[in-house]
Structures are given as structure tokens and as C-alpha cells.
């Protein structure tokens, strides 16, 4: 009968390690009912059943089972019962109680030949250190576990144990900020879990979410968590379920939704309390307080609650969480004007081993404290130090998706520094803080990841799915399966890019004097827009002057720009009933009037008749500036930042071949391409059946100027896959990022492919942005739909002007001056 008990025990361990504790518990109870087991077998079954019970939230029952096991177990099995009790204590958050038991068990196991058991206990102790934020000892245990496990056979279940060690290493990498490395470790673990532990894939989804959240991608983290939360109830993984709810709270907070964040955090707190896990309930309580603070709860009461929580978390061994609670208490005190109390809450010192979020939070508190006490220099120093940390963090990413993500703390540091700069008032100080607070991803050279076979296949499959979806759309219907398949493949390709390491290099920031000199040479004025509270401001730099102007309220301006774009799309190339056409045109004039009144009119007295270089913020990134009456015929260039503009003015390249591409399903594309071919004899023309993705990619990276007369699609939800239609499928922003070289000058003459998604810190993503990031100096594109017929004449005039040596900004202004609804914008460098 003991053989049958042994078999049931082994199968139960398999189920528990695969993330199915309820199934494992049923097998163990069956084994106990059989009888005939040796005392050693009974003790082991009871110890394993305790682990299964605690995984389902039955902590009290688990401890009773361990007591029973100690009554029947022989002395030689003492190490096993020690490790089981330590594991139960770990799973209930009693870290300080669990650690000496793990230490004792490991010392006993080192004196035996039970190497598989030693590997498993090292894995669990490594997990304890990781939860407590002790990264170095965690990695030491996990690496030793992996080495021992790798030397043993698969019969001992070691591949899964090694996978869990690699999984744990990834969790440690998240703490140190190495997100690409963490995601690569998670991939390795997933490969084993897929064969030997399906339940662990759900756990891994939660850890991926935490990694993406640490990288500044809260919406992507929420997507991973939704997958996890759908699977967890069936697996009955109570602790993991509550931990996922806690991570969802953090994701909602990072996305700027403190109300939802509090709801998720409160649910997690309740579930941890039901499991009698005071440690994790305290961590959830911290998330509740953070959400309250973000909702405007910077009160003395919240400060006291956070201070008490810091003490409790410290007593539980959660040093990093305790520091975060203390820093939150300090912020609440600062918000109440209680600076002495805030200083008293600050942790004694800045720990280099602390998570990046804590190091940034400490600098934010010190910057806010300096500003509250009138120490502007201290506010500048701390905010600058925090942003430098964030910059080093970003340099580790090769993916533009991650580079344009940022932590909310980074945005708050920039706001504190900028607020102090505005109070200071000196133009060069304001300029420096504006440069530190926007479009930082342009400072890093692009990292082009060599496409492996799987990625190449995935991109080909994506083109096929996108083509099927587009074909259905042109027939006036939808293909939901193709759309769903395309979204899934897009996410897989994006996730592949997240694992790419950054080069660590960084382009220099253009200084204030440097920008003034470049503007004087170009005869231009630069307008850098910013928001401060609910107001829109602008720093104007031109000639020998630099002024800070107060404009209108930001909300009505951004709303007007959004409505204007909708009106332009409605009016574009359609034969509307006269009544509706009058309504649409009236609305267009009204929105243009709002922008003129609140934005342009205050600027005109300062900029005079100079050419304009505009650095937009928020919704102004979608503004078609050439439609404003006062700017008709005036060269206007839009750039992500002053440094990006200065770099573009200097990046002079020798002229290269001209590429002309005519896409499918566009009535006038062939006519447009033929006209331009007469202007550029010897140009490469890809039109009709020749306008293939492979043909364009082959020609585009050796061209100096490329013109695309092709339908474009701006993907608001997945901007890295914004695209141009070609005859055999889409050319995507993802493809642009993989090019070894891009044309110096690109013209996109159709649709609204000039749009961008604007992330925090005015980081932009989209097809036009992809070209600018990859090295194109000038991109002419539209921020709203374009009348294709009218665009032919505009583009013909534009290119004729270019061949006469007219700079792009001037050429576009002249070509569109008499076309009322041409929302083209010159991005990058306009001459």
C-alpha cells in the first residue's frame, strides 16, 4: 500500500507545482485515507497537504497539519518538515519567522545527498529574499538552485524547479530595473511551464504585468493582468489572485485613475486579510493610501496613517515597502505645509540597492520639500538627480515602446522642476527644464534588432491578416477573425521588441545659446508650448529675445483641436448635402477661431513675421497650423523638441535617389506619381503591381527623398503598427524601425498618417514619428484626412518648389496657401 501512497504523493506534488493546488490536495487526502503508509510517508504527505491548503487560503488548517506531521515524522525527516513550515509561513507573509527555518533546513540538507530537496529549499528561500527586496541574496540562492537542478535528471522534476529559479531571477531583475532581461528570463521559464506546469503560466502573466508596469506601460500591464485574472479562479490560486488585484491597482494608478486603483487595492486588501496574511494586507493598504493621495488626499490624517503603516511594514521585514510608505507620509506632510514633520519621515539614507521607484520617490519628496521651504536650488538639484536616474533607466531599453514609456514619478519630478523654473523666470532656466521634461526618447539612438526567423514569420502572418481585414473593409464589411488575429500577432511582435537591450548611448541636449544661434541663422522663431496647471503657456525664442507668454486655458484649446480634426475628416473629399456642409464648415471656422484667439493671437505680437518652429504639447500635436488664416503662406515646422530640431538642422546629407510609390485603392495615386516622375527624371517608380512591401523596403533605405501616394492608417491603440497600404499588404511603422537607413525627406500625401499618440512627457508614437526617430530629417504628412484629388495639385506644386531649392517649410506653405482644407504639416526640419 505504501507504493500507492508514494505514487499519489508524487502526483499531488506535480499538481501543486503546476499551479493546481486544489487537485493536489484531493490526491493527498486520498493517500491519507488509504492507510499502510510509513511514518515518514505520512509526515511528508501531511507537510505537502499543508502547502496545498495554504495555497488555497486555509492557513490555520495548514499549520494544524504541520503540527500533526511533526508528531509522526522521524527525526531524519526534520529538514523536510522545517522547510514545509517555512514555506507555509512564507506564503502567509511571516518572512522573519520563515527565514531561520529555511536556514536550518538548508544547513541540514547540505550534510546529506538530497540535492533535489536542497535545490527546492534554496528556491523558496530565494523567493523570500526577493519578496523582502534583498536582491543579492535572492539571486545567490536562485543561481545555486539552478546549478544544482541543472546537474540532476528530469526524473526529479528539476526542469520545472530550474524554470522557477529563472522565473525568480526575472522577478529580481524587475526590482533592479532590468526589464529586457526580466522579460527574457520569463520567456525561458514559460517554455518549460508550457510542457510542465500550465498553471504557472498564469502566475507568469502576473509577473510580466509587473515588469511592464515598472517600464511605464500601465495599459499593457493591465492587459496581461486581465488574462491572469480570467484564469486564476479556476486554478484556485488565492494568493496569486489577490496579488494580481494589487498589481492591477498599481496599473490603474499609473494610468491616472486613482478611483479604480483604490477599488482594486481595497479588494486585494480584503482577500489578503481573509487569508490571514497581514504582510501582504499591509502592502495592499499602502496601495490604498497611494490612491487616496493621488485623489487629492494630501492630509495630515493620511500622513499619520502612512507613517504607522511604514512602521508596521518595517517590522514585517518589508524594507522597500516601508520606505515607500514613509516617503508617502512625507509627501502628505509637505502637501499640508508641515515641512518639519516631512523631514522626520524621510528614511535615513538613499539606498543604491532600493528599487528605482523608491529612489525616484525620495528625490521627488526632497524636491517638493525644497520648493515648499523656498529652497529653489534644492528643488532643482533633487528633480535633476531624479530625472538623471530615469534617463539611465531608459538607456537600458532598446525598444522605442519602452523608451517612450515613463514612470508617473518621472512626470512629477519634471513638473516640480518646471514649476520652480517658472517661478525663477530666467529664460535659460525655463528652457532647460522644458528640455528635460519632453521627448526624451529622441535622445537615444535607435536600436535595430536583427529579425529572427520567428519574427519574420510573425510579420508575414500579420501582413496577411491585415490584408484580409482591409479587403473586407473595402467591401463594406468586417472580418472579425482577421482583426483579432492581427491584434494578437501585433502584441507578440511588440513583446519581442521589449526584450531588446539599449545601447546606453545618448545624444547631447542642445543648449539655450545653441538654439538661439540656430534660430538666428534660420531667421525663425521657436515657440515651445507647455501646460502649467490648467493653463497653456509658451516660451518664445527668437532673435535676441526669449519671453514666456500666458495663453488661454488648455482644455478648450485641446477640445477645439480634437473637434477640428473630426470636422476635417467629415468634410474630406465627400459630397455632403449643402445644409450639412455649411454646418461642418461653420464648425471648422469656429474651432480655428478658438485656437487663434487662445493660442495664436498672443504669439503674433512677439514672433512678428518670422518663420515658425513649433514644439507642441498634448493635443496641439494634432493641430494643422497652416489652416489658421494668420499663418497661411508662412513656413511652419513642427518638431518634438528644440534638441531634435537643432540635430535636424545639422544632419545635412548628400542628395540621394528619389523614390515614388503609388498605393492601391486610391483614385488619383497613379496620376500623382506620374506627375512627380516628370519632375524627377530617373526616379524609381513603384506603382500598381510594383508597389510591393519587399520592393519598397529594398528601395527606401537607399533613397534620399521618398514620396508615398498611398492610403495610411493611424492605429490609436497600437501605434507601432500604423501603416501605409501597398499592393500586397501594409508597410508598418514597425518596418520603419527595422530599416538600416531611412530617406532624409519623406512625403506622405494621403490620409491622416501625420497623427501621433502622445504619451506622458510629450513622447510621440506613430508612422511619422517612426520616420523621425529612425533618422528622417523632414516628414511632410497630414494630421487629418486629405482630399486625394486636391492633394495631387498641392504635391505637384510642393515638389516643383523643392527642385528650385525652396526649403520644405516654405514649399509646403506656398503649395497649400490657397487650398482651404489641406491639413499637411512639415515635421522635423523645414529649412
Helix and strand arrangement:
Layout: H1 2-17, H2 21-34, H3 39-55, H4 59-72, H5 78-91, H6 95-110, H7 115-131, H8 135-151, H9 158-176, H10 179-196, H11 198-214, H12 218-235, H13 238-254, H14 258-274, H15 278-294, H16 300-315, H17 319-335, H18 339-345, H19 356-372, H20 376-394, H21 400-403, H22 408-424, H23 427-436, H24 453-474, H25 480-498, H26 512-522, E1 524-532, E2 535-542, E3 545-553, H27 554-571, H28 578-607, E4 611-615, E5 636-638, H29 642-650, E6 658-662, H30 669-679, E7 684-687, H31 693-700, E8 705-709, E9 712-713, E10 723-726, E11 729-732, H32 733-738, E12 745-748, E13 757-759, E14 763-765, H33 767-774, E15 778-782, H34 788-803, H35 808-816, E16 824-828
Parallel strand pairs: 1-4, 4-5, 5-16, 6-7, 6-8, 8-12, 12-15
Antiparallel strand pairs: 1-2, 2-3, 9-10, 10-11, 13-14, 15-16
Helix pairs in contact: 1-2, 1-3, 2-3, 3-4, 3-5, 4-5, 5-6, 5-7, 6-7, 7-8, 7-9, 8-9, 9-10, 10-11, 11-12, 11-13, 12-13, 13-14, 13-15, 14-15, 15-16, 15-17, 16-17, 17-18, 17-19, 19-20, 19-22, 20-22, 22-23, 24-25, 27-28, 30-34, 34-35
Describe this structure in words.
63% of the residues lie in helices and 9% in strands. The strands form three sheets. Strands 3-2-1-4-5-16-15-12-8-6-7 form an eleven-stranded mixed sheet, with helices on both faces. Strands 9-10-11 form a three-stranded antiparallel sheet. A two-stranded antiparallel ribbon has the order 13-14. The chain starts with a helix and ends with a strand. The relative contact order is 0.05.
